Amino acid sequence: MAKSTFVYVTYIRTTPEKLWSALTDDVEFMKQYWFGVYCESRWTTGSSWKMVQNDGQVSDAGEIVEAKPPRRLVIRWLHQSKPELKAEGESLCTMELEPSGTAVKLSIIHTIERDPSKFIAAVSGGWPKIISNLKSLLESGSIALQEPYPGESVHSGKE
Amino acid sequence: MAESRDTDVLFKALADSSRRKLLDLLHAHDGRTLNELCEHLDMTRQGVTQHLDLLEAANLVATVRRGREKLHFLNPVPLQEIYERWIAKFEKPRLKALADLKRRMEKTNG
Predict the structure, then answer these.
(1) Tell me, what's the ipTM?
(2) Across the interface, which of B31, B84, B95 has its CB nearest the CB of A5?
(3) Which of B21, B4, B6 is closest to B57 using CA atoms?
(4) Over the stretch B53-88, which tens digit does the pLDDT of each residue have?
(5) Contact B59 A10 (CB under 8 A)
(6) B87: number of CA atoms within 13 Å, CB side?
(7) Cβ of B92 and A132 within 8 Å?
(8) pTM: predicted TM-score of the whole model, two decimal places
């Protein structure tokens, strides 16, 4: 079957436990690197999952398919707000955390069973900025980007 | 110290036209095997492998195993870091000046 996939990899100088917490239950931390967005879940296999935008709107929802802290997280992910993206159906987002020297290798693999996919195109613009912010926040204590699209006023951005 | 070594590896990986072509090929169509990539380059299979190894060491290419095959994906995260470190910083004041100009013009029109 045709499939769209992207793979993002970064090495972050931190521990798997801290990175796991930054990707899951530390809501205030997540809002700092995710431009005000946070995810809500119990972060256990089978529990529900949702992504909340900074205006309170739920943009994406789904289920935790697999949670093995602090190593592997798989989310069944369905976009909610834009009809043309929602129509593409469920996607699968896998996050893997592997210790690598003094750092942790974070791999994010997002797939959907169709090619081409507008959903994958939409999220692939966002992930590098989010991951890059996460890396600088964990390593240096401050974020690199205040807004997802610098120079445009589409987002209020967090100070 | 480790940071600047990573940056050296990254810029060295980009400083070669065949490797940049490999990145363009993956950008056009992600998730390709070595054989598929070899078709587009006038180079030995071993040569392509070496270039891919360098790109992987610089974290510009990520690989995923699927059965016996190894699929290559463009990993844009280091490019985003270059953008933030070496581009956004320098273009930001100019973008801000443009945005300010636009705001001022629109205010006087309204």
Answers:
(1) 0.70
(2) B31
(3) B6
(4) 999 999 999 999 888 999 999 998 899 888 888 887
(5) yes
(6) 8
(7) no
(8) 0.81
